[in-house]
Predict the 3D structure of the following.
Amino acid sequence: MKRGICLFVLIPGVIFSAFSQDNVKKDSSYESFVSQSGVIIRLQDFKLPPMEGTGYSTYDNRIRIIMSNDVVKYFYQITKTSKSGDIIGSIEYKELLEMLNAVNLLQAQFNLDLNKSIEYMENKYITNDGIQVGYYISITSKAWFIKLDKYKTDSTIFFKESTNILKGFQEALNKIEELKRN
């Protein structure tokens, strides 16, 4: 009887614990690096031309260099201003390279998917930090997107074509490589 009561109390606790961990926000590589304690952290920003989204929307971009002790990291940051404040997606240099390759692959697939009769399709690449880039096609519309934060509902920015995303990513990559040489 005592075992039955223990199991009755223990099993729901374990199940609840497992499910609740899915909704816990994990620090991104950017947040982890800039929130170190006991070290001096130096930040440098280099502004890039804004990305042009759908309609008349534009999104600020910059390269942020973070130096801590002998470690230097480069991040591409895209900012979306929303009702709840600025939402900033920070993409580490290595992930930017992967995202650029992914958008090129997605572009080829997008052209094939346009000819399919599908009610809705979404195709995307997700970084280790949860930033997403991709496209959707529905019966009535199609668009490319970047989702800057997987935990915020209004963090998605939309583009008519992938060329604006590719242009922004390439400008960021070129700037980082220029900064690395200096």
User: Anything to note?
Assistant: Residues 6-21 have pLDDT under 50 and may be disordered. The two ends are 72 Å apart (CA to CA).
